[in-house]
Write a structure and sequence with these properties.
single chain; 202 residues; alpha/beta; 3-stranded parallel β-sheet; 7 helices
Length: 202
């Protein structure tokens, strides 16, 4: 009597009943770049995407890095304007209290399509994004059409940790060794959730 053979395709179908995000790579759209967001800077667009017109991927995290005053917020605000032109709504996480309505309007940004969200700690960001994605997941299960969203954190380097805040309150000047761990934890928690809903993170 011949042994029954489980084909990989059958296994794939069974696994898809357990977790619908996974499937054969040939048909999986989870991490596929479906659109690009112009940064407003042709040279940067070309460096990131290989095209003068494309820019940053519409479903991945991108980090603009550099010393203070080198134009990271300038690039970010230009990208926000271009994303809104493409139908995105933006959650602008400000850790420096440096961006306001007037500044955004100077960049030609429709501020009725931007949620301004002050963030103080890494934990604040993790909690906010986790709840955002939980809300979107619940609505998606009810077959509600979701808005296109882009998330900004300006800037990551200015986020504090709970330890840093507690040390400041108690007068302790001990060096905070937890920040890198907290940042790694943040990205472990939020990256897949944001990708699930095609939310680019700048």
């Amino acid at each position: 009597m011949a042994k029954e053979i489980l084909s990989f395709e059958e296994l794939d179908k069974a696994m898809s009943k357990i977790d619908s995000l996974g499937s054969l790579m040939s048909v999986n759209e989870f991490s596929k770049i479906s659109e690009w967001i112009n940064t407003g800077n042709y040279a940067l667009n070309a460096q990131v995407s290989g095209s003068l017109r494309k820019g940053i991927p519409g479903n991945r995290g991108v980090m603009f890095t550099g010393p203070s005053g080198t134009g990271k917020t300038f690039l970010t605000l230009n990208t926000v304007r271009e994303a809104i032109k493409m139908g995105y709504y933006v959650i602008y996480g400000d850790t420096e209290a440096a961006v306001d309505n007037d500044l955004m309007e100077k960049f030609g940004i429709d501020t009725t399509k931007v949620r301004y969200q002050p963030f103080k700690t890494v934990l604040n960001v993790r909690h906010f994004v986790s709840n955002l994605c939980s809300t979107l997941r619940e609505k998606s299960k009810k077959k509600v059409e979701l808005p296109k969203i882009m998330m900004v954190i300006d800037s990551l380097g200015n986020l504090a940790t709970e330890k840093e805040i507690n040390d400041a309150a108690s007068g302790s000047d001990k060096r905070d060794m937890t920040k890198q761990q907290n940042l790694r934890s943040l990205f472990r928690v939020i990256t897949t959730d944001l990708a699930e809903f095609k939310i680019p993170l700048v």
